[in-house]
Fold these 2 entries.
Entry 1:
Amino acid sequence: MTRNLQFVVLAGSLFATALAAPALADEPERVVQEWYRRLSESDIAGLAGLIAPNAVFHTEASGKSQSREEFIAYMDQSQDVLANAEIRHKLQEKDETTITMIVCYDFQPGLTLNRETYSVADGKIVNARQKRLAEDCDGF
């Protein structure tokens, strides 16, 4: 009886893990899709809700890093620019915790093409790295 109960518990655990694995693998994509939706809407409060308390944002062009609070303040100051921007993005690669996107920002009057990599844990962005690829979006 005990052996059968152990088997049932083990089988149930394996089944639950198998069901959760695809959801976990989709977590970075779900979070980042929501991120770009909020970004397109200039929804700073919504963006803030997607960022973990100890998150760090890195910009490779400047070599600077920003804390969550610094990044949110910067986004708040840039809200007018965001409101008039067209943002297009596409998936480059992903794994269970990290996703890399190619992003075309059409900030009137200029274009910027970036590679943006996000690390996600518990439904929040914990690390972001942005690298400028071009001053246009040719080939996007």
Note: Residues 97 and 120 are 5 Å apart (CA to CA).
Entry 2:
Amino acid sequence: MSNARRAAYPNEDCLFTVRPMRASDARAATGVWYRAWCDTYVHPEGATRQWVDEIWKPRLSDEGIARLAQDAASGERGSYIVADGGGGEIIGVAITQVGDAGDQYLQALYIDAAFRYRGVGSALARAAMAGLDPDRPVDLDVARLNRGAQRFYRRLGFQAVPGSEALWRGVLPVVTMRRPAGWRQQRTTGARQNCSATLHCSEESTRRTVFCTGGES
């Protein structure tokens, strides 16, 4: 659903590329997604490692990898975007989905731990949502314990929906956040709205609470 263009970001240190997911990226992207779940949701306020592994067993199977590859290749109902750290090393993944009624979701946004707080998440989120209709709202679900993620999404225009607290699959406390229709972020450069971009990221601390996201199914 995205029209990808490339743009360079002047910065320091490490280089990564935000681009549409290829079928060959599916296994690595799934690994990023799974590790981020373990980092984030295995927590006294969240879930057990056993519960996470039960959820992920079918996703980590060859059939689950093939399904993600097929969905990314078709791109019929959303955008599948990755951050490539070079040489095909996938360091982040973002997925948006559009429902039958046109409802829009930021379904997933996950970054490998070593690359958080370097601008990768912001670049992925903007690229993934560039394919959505700006005149319709965008929803996501975020773990209630993940306060760093909630702050991150507020910077992208999302606000918690009152009364939306729920237990995802009866276990993980989540809250729905929504970016309203017509929301526009002030552009610092025109390139930041592109779906595919090559970026440099500077060294930053990774000591803070992880942020990754929303709307898992």
Note: Helices lie at 26-41, 49-60, 62-74, 120-129, 147-155.
